[in-house]
Amino acid sequence: xxxxxxxxxxxxxxxxxxxxxxxxxxxxxxxxxxxxxxxxxxxxxxxxxxxxxxxxxxxxxxxxxxxxxxxxxxxxxxxxxxxxxxxxxxxxxxxxxxxxxxxxxxxxxxxxxxxxxxxxxxxxxxxxxxxxxxxxxxxxxxxxxxxxxxxxxxxxxxxxxxxxxxxxxxxxxxxxxxxxxxxxxxxxxxxxxxxxxxxxxxxxxxxxxxxxxxxxxxxxxxxxxxxxxxxxxxxxxxxxxxxxxxxxxxxxxxxxxxxxxx
Length: 262
Description:
Elements: H1 3-16, H2 31-38, E1 43-49, E2 52-57, E3 71-76, H3 82-89, E4 96-101, E5 104-109, H4 112-124, E6 131-134, E7 140-144, E8 150-153, E9 155-156, E10 159-160, H5 164-215, H6 227-249, E11 257-259
Parallel strand pairs: 6-11
Antiparallel strand pairs: 1-5, 2-3, 2-4, 4-8, 5-7, 6-7, 9-10
Helix pairs in contact: 4-5
């Protein structure tokens, strides 16, 4: 099957299947970004979370909290207040942990150069833990992530280990990180929109530039050609083609590429 056709099939399957997340829909703060990506033929999103503050009860597993082995006491994608946390903590009978998790976005890309463009935009927007994964079947995935998370234990075996004043302090930090996360999402959206528009203009103008260069060639209107000059012209054109090939081989955008089982 043609690679582009296979990519279109993957995209159609992903965008038509049911949303199996806890919320069942795309988070409000990332809807515009998801729609922008899915509206382009070279991208589609496979999962997303706009960022959240959560309180987890990890049972008796200590600090190694895993989603499948813990109880979600509180989840919010908006700024959080101390009263909500204190009420939720009363339900904890294990090791409760307060976390802020920034944006996580997974995007499948048609080609590596598409992933590299998106990776560059993500990095410039502040998501500096982003990376590209190339799978065995040729699937190219970009994970958009950042490092400004927060994870703090609050209780052990149901006993609160910190003061309410400290919890209030933590929430101020978490809410500040939430606000910064939102700004980065907006920056990502605007930068991506600009990059895609610039890419479209560059692609559309390339054939015209080549046609104009051909018509403006100083040799076009000459009736007679000197063999030596003609040979020199041929060599020059070959060198130009070599430079064009070098540009195509080097996309000019750095990216960290991880294997599928990284």
